[in-house]
Design brief:
The complex is a heterodimer of chains A (99) and B (164).
Chain A: H1 2-7, E1 11-12, H2 13-23, H3 35-44, E2 48-55, E3 58-65, H4 67-91
Antiparallel strand pairs in A: 1-3, 2-3
Chain B: H1 14-25, H2 30-55, H3 59-70, H4 73-82, H5 89-135, H6 157-163
Helix pairs in contact in B: 1-2, 1-4, 2-3
Classes of the chains: A alpha+beta (99), B mainly alpha (164).
Chain lengths: 99, 164
């Protein structure tokens, strides 16, 4: 998810958390700190790059996906959609009345 | 009381206190440590500012809420500590030097061994020549019994039989 959100444009950790919350209509209200170890791991895996940016009197570490990161995001999105469709198909009989 | 564990110094600023607490538990040094604390400090400051502005809250209340939403400093440090360390440039160079040294030692050993083996081979030829001179060429062939060692001057039994 982090890769997909960053694919829309580079963001710093705070912005990324806000964007996740916005896109999920507030469903993903995660402990905000947990996003940083995840970002560091993705960068270490070569899926993200980062650099410091100065905004006024504040420095921000801004993240962007690498080419490999974009490719990985695309693959994982396709896999997730396939999985999601399969789950929907299994649950389809319950969709009517929950019985 | 647990020995060896530093305690975060008390401070009035909740962000500074959180960062100090994170530093206590963080097992990262140098630039990585500075980057982590810098990112966390920036995130908290921005979050507090935004929350105080949006809901018209005093900074202390906004800080308490933002820090609670961010999660425990100890747990966060634990997640960073669990991430494998990136090998530094210095240690990468050291590894390359170590491999190069091992390679050089290996090649040196191989060269010395080859030289030693060559001289031993020459000695064996000399021994075989001596045996051939004394007992005839049949006894100096590599397969002939008694010619395994070039320092042996005792003729093999079948040679003795042939001579007599």
């Amino acid at each position: 998810m982090l890769l997909v959100v960053l694919d829309a444009g580079p963001l710093h950790g705070y912005g990324l958390v806000q964007e996740l919350r916005r896109r999920s209509n507030g469903e993903f209200d995660l402990a905000e700190g947990t996003v940083y170890p995840a970002l560091h791991r993705l960068e270490r895996a070569g899926l993200l790059t980062s650099r410091w940016e100065v905004m006024g009197d504040r420095r921000r570490r801004v993240y962007a996906p690498t080419r490999l990161g974009r490719k990985t995001a695309g693959e994982r999105t396709r896999n997730w959609r396939r999985f999601s469709r399969a789950v929907d198909a299994v649950l389809a009989p319950l969709a009517g009345g929950g019985s | 009381m647990r020995l060896g564990r530093r305690r975060a110094a008390p401070t009035a600023d909740p962000v500074a206190a959180y960062v100090r607490e994170l530093e206590v538990h963080l097992r990262r040094r140098g630039r990585v440590r500075g980057r982590i604390t810098g990112e966390v400090r920036g995130h908290l400051e921005e979050g507090i500012e935004a929350l105080a502005r949006e809901r018209n809250l005093p900074r202390s209340v906004a800080a308490a809420e933002t820090i609670a939403r961010f999660g425990s400093a100890e747990e966060l440090a634990g997640q960073f500590n669990a991430t494998p360390k990136r090998r530094s440039e210095a240690s990468r160079r050291l590894a390359v030097l170590w491999i190069a040294w091992l390679g050089a030692m290996g090649m040196g050993s191989a060269t010395v061994w080859a030289a030693f083996d060559g001289s031993a081979g020459a000695g064996r030829s000399h021994g075989q020549a001596t045996v051939a001179r004394t007992h005839g060429p049949a006894c100096a062939s590599p397969g002939a019994r008694g010619t395994r060692t070039h320092i042996s001057v005792v003729p093999p039994r079948h040679c003795r039989r042939a001579r007599s």
